[in-house]
Amino acid sequence: MGKLDGKVIIVTGCSSGLGKQFAIRIAGEGAKLAICSRTENKLMESKRICEEKGAEVLAMAIDIMEYDSLVKFVNATVEKFGTIDVLVNNAHTITMPAPFLEKSIDDLDIEMRSSVYSYWHMMKLCFPYLRDKSGAGSSIINFASEAAVKGDALYAPYAAAKEAVRGLSRVVAREWGQYNIRVNTLCPNGLTDNCSGGFASLGIEAQEHIEKAFVNNPFRRAGDPYNDVAPAVVFLASDDSHWITGQNINADGGGLINA
Length: 259
Hints:
alpha/beta, Rossmann fold, 47% helix
């Protein structure tokens, strides 16, 4: 018996990074999965691993910044599985870290469209299928960031977008509780293949800043996406979290204790 047996769960941004590990962990807990990403070949590799875990998987290569693509993805999910029980809004395009004076409005636009706007659209598109479920109801998990909570240097567009996600999520949690839908945000600390692989393209200042951020916690180590962060996603997706909504969960090894 898995913690998510029978649930239909959407996870965005699953070709690599955190989203891939979340999908794999969820697959092992008995859920049916709908996953998406822009990179089709990597997405199909995630699909293969999830299926090896025993999950039935729908995988679609889409750009979450395109509304029509989101509509097609949600419609395909419902056509295949009949409903949606959990929405995990994980995908986000991060622009190159740089001081605020060097960032452009285009950088902000990319980060807002790939997170706040796509999360906004996905919540509305999934609402008809999430609403009024019996028992523990349904769950929406939106991803925020401790970099935004703390106001980390070099991340102005990212921080603006992620804090907007937290504000939006609190409002929707208040409004949709009446429909037995809970909405929470999660701030992860997990060193992914995306992060480590991208270090070389950054300046020395940015590299040092990021490396310190990942180990700035009581355990003095970076979190593992599958073993440390994904269990928190499973919990928020499961019926065990039925009395938790409007909250921000820090799966970060205590990095935000003093925040």
